[in-house]
Amino acid sequence: MSFLLYLLLGIALIFYAKNLQQKQIAQLSDEFKLLLFKMFEKRNNYSLYFSLLVMAAFLIIIWLNLFDLHLTLLAFAFVNIIAVAIPLNINYNKLVKANFPVEFTNNYIVTSALRVLGTIIIFSYIFLTD
User: Fold this and answer.
1) Which domain holds residue 115?
2) What global pTM score does this model have?
3) In the chain, how many domains are there?
4) Using CA atoms, how far apart are residues 25 and 21, in angstroms rounded to an integer?
């Protein structure tokens, strides 16, 4: 399989998870929607800044040829998966603590797992081929 297929499959899974989550958010009461917005409005910026920093470091390491390319890609994939998994766990705990509906928190787990799986699929091409 080509990299494009892995990339498209991973991205499709991530977007599918995003759509599922948006549908679940639409079903929340206005009170929970407002609470959700307040709980996560600042975190989105931190995630974006962290992602940009990691990407810049990754590109500099490749450009300067500081490490083996496969080792660099493995580290980049690992950092990305950890960067997704840790906030997901923190966010889930916040949702439970704020007494969000069980259906919503369960959906959050499913959509989060789909996002992580999509990320793993995208990076798996690098490690399954030489």
Assistant:
1) 3-128
2) 0.74
3) 1
4) 6
